[in-house]
């Protein structure tokens, strides 16, 4: 798609603009990626919200659909495997104290929901996960600056787009700052049309993936995984492709 857009550089954006500038090809890469990520995120947000509200409705009506600690799981499904039934029984037992979660842990609940899902699948304790996150965060506060300082002194071109260790987010944030000053009118033509198209495409892909079910839906890629390589580079997509291939062969 990028070579096709480059053929329109005379009509859509100036030829003198470098590829990493937001007034050129980089604008399409960044905004298309953002549109797909937003479409994927909003679809999953409303999907999770609707299922949560449905579960709360059943719970209020006396048909408990959400597993609670020290309470029997009244709503059961014959489709649950033995592993899922075991996870449902074991995961809620070792909970984080309610007084503690109410006073501060809820502030990072949005970030930790993925970790809790992983813990649920691996039968890990929520309390053990929280303690490990605290320890890992404390270690990261020390290790991350040291690693950055080591790389900063080892490579003179660290962070440049064409270097061995680029910083793609730095380029995006810098161009966003320039865009804030110059306004959206300085952007190339038809970028907003691409945003609409790929935003709708991300929602459509998620919808089709859910309708096909787990068996066939697993062969459809996630829109977010498709969008991230747009501005991070192809190496990210290659790594995910190799990892997915290994997982497919393993299963």
How would you portray this structure in words?
It contains twelve helices and no strands. With 251 residues, the chain is mainly alpha-helical. The two termini are 33 Å apart. About 3% of the residues have low confidence.
| Poorly predicted runs | 72-78
Strand content: under 5%
Query: How would you sum up the global shape?
Result: globular
Largest sheet descriptor: none
Structural class call reads mainly alpha
Query: How far do the termini sit from each other?
Result: 33 Å
The portion of residues assigned to helices is 55-70%
Rg over CA atoms: 23 Å
Average pLDDT: 76
Strand and helix order:
HHHHHHHHHHHH
Number of DSSP strand runs: 0
Q: Treating each run of at least 4 consecutive H or I residues as one helix, how many helices? A: 12
List keywords for this structure.
251 residues; mainly alpha
In short:
This protein has 251 residues and is mainly α. The protein has helices at residues 2-6, 9-12, 25-60, 82-90, 98-103, 109-121, 126-154, 168-182, 191-217, 223-227, 229-232, 234-250. Residues 72-78 have low confidence and may be disordered.
